[in-house]
Amino acid sequence: MTDGVKDRLSQSVPRYTSYPTAPHFSSRIDARTYRRWLEELNADKPLSIYVHVPFCRKMCWYCGCHTKVTAKYEPIAKYVRAMQTEIKLLASILPERFSISHIHWGGGTPTILSPADFKSTMQLFEEYFDFTEKAEKAIEIDPRTLDAEMIDALAAAGINRASLGVQDFSLVVQEAINRVQPYETTKAVTEDLRAAGITNINFDLMYGLPLQNETDVRRTVDLAHSLRPDRIALFGYAHVPWMKSHMKMIRDQDLPDGPARLTQANSASDRLAELGYRKIGLDHFAAEHDELAVSHNQGKLSRNFQGYTTDNAETLLGIGASSIGSLPRGYVQNTVPMRSYEEFMQKGELAVIKGIELSLDDKIRRHIIERLMCDLEVNLNSARGLFPIQISDFQPELTALVELEQEGLVENKLGHLVVTNKGRPFVRSICAVFDKYLNQGLAQHSKAV
After folding, report:
1. Is the per-residue pLDDT at 304 higher than 70?
2. H or E element: which one contains 75?
3. Interacting residues of 166 by C-beta distance below 8 A, sequence separation 6+
4. Paired residues of 352 in beta bridges
5. How far apart are the first and last CA of the chain?
6. Rounded-to-integer distance, Cα 324 and Cα 338, Å
7. Cα separation of 86 and 31, whole Å?
8. Are the CB atoms for 100 and 49 separated by under 8 Å?
């Protein structure tokens, strides 16, 4: 391993689920801007919806999400009423009745809702919107808290994809991250979901966790595979205790260093390939029959705030506190504190407090970064057919890529950039070359690998 590659292991770069990234959103984009952008939307194009539920029963120390632990249901019920108000408010602002092609429930723990509240919220979407014939209805699940009644509610609401948090099956690692979840628990929930007709199953796994080693990661991959998930996401743990105070419960000395993280990532990736999974972009894996693999094969893969997706909707509306929306004109984000969000809803006002309007340069760079993240290559010459650009416009970036080329991470063939197998774990660092915002402000990001 060269010194340059070693240095990149500790480089802090965005995950590029959007571009520009959220730290560069500004209060200049507010609720009035959002209302105007909503009113301009074309009803001929389906929407994507993200619903954020920021509650959990117990805090996992690795968690980087906006969430809050509660043992009582009252604050959750209050929040559900606020979300339902936002759904109605958005429907009243949109110029026509729209259809929905994707809906994703994220958290926190979305299945912390009562079955009745979950069903009534889904019914509200059906009242104000139309779902397309093949709409994906997905939800994130904590297997430790899911019961039979909630599974029945999910099935009744038409949920057709479930994403189960697993992380690692080693008890030592689970105790170190405050999330003890036996294999048998994950197995039982997976089987119960399939029995209820929810047959599209995703697993989330992690590397780089405290006290985790290569053997743990490979064992977890094998156990996960025994349950035959259709998709596996393999995320690197992002240790950001300056942003998430509960991460201070994880001791720095228990974390694997950069080379060890890379070894874990590569070992898990190799094992998943041996087991027949297609590697998608940076960190996703899909069975050959899965729509994600099909979309990847067809060059139609997209990336949004949920990671790699088959969702090609140009508009994503975020519901709930801290949720981010993406519209043709730019990005918007709701206020983060739940109390603030609920107060906006009580007044019948949109809760957007910041965002960013996309310039032409932003759109060009977003295209380049998304194609690199999804396809591991981009042809700047082809981009000229989509945008008014010249290869010479990116001479500073191409010059900066020379060092990455010398390290064997990327190849530049007259403007056709191809990420090498060696460079695949470093694709975020390659994308960062095209990020004009990266060194602006005080934003801090996770490690490149």
Report:
1. yes
2. helix 74-93
3. 143, 181, 186, 203, 204, 205, 220, 224
4. 334
5. 14
6. 14
7. 13
8. yes
Distance between CA 74 and CA 51 in Å, rounded?
19
Q: Report d(CA 342, CA 1) in Å as an integer.
A: 51
Please give the single-letter amino acid code of residue 317. Answer: L
Calculate the dihedral angle through the C-alpha atoms of 378, 381, 383, 385, rounding to the nearest 10 degrees: -150
Which whole-number Å values give the CA distances from 13 to 8, 9, 54, 324, in the listed order? 10, 10, 25, 20
Rounded to 5°, the CA angle 8-14-17 comes to 135
Cβ neighbours of 404 (radius 10 Å): 23
Looking up tokens 């010398």, which residue turns up?
406
Helices 31-39/74-93 angle, 10° precision: 50
Cβ atoms within 10 A of the Cβ of 391, count? Answer: 13
Model-level pTM? 0.93
Percent of the chain with pLDDT over 70: 95
Compute the distance between CA of residue 134 and CA of residue 136 in angstroms, rounded to an integer.
Answer: 6
Amino acid at 316: L
What single string gives the DSSP state of each residue in 342-401? HHHHHTT---EEEEEEPPHHHHHHHHHHHHHHHHSEEEHHHHTTTSS--GGGGHHHHHHH
**Mean pLDDT of the region 416-427:** 94
Cis check for the bond before 281: say yes or no (omega within 30 of 0): no
**Backbone dihedral angles phi then psi of residue 110, each to the nearest 5 degrees:** -60, -30
- 316: nearest Cα among 277, 307, 252: 307
Containing H/E element for 123?
A: helix 115-128
pLDDT band at 392 (very low <50, low <70, confident <90, very high): confident
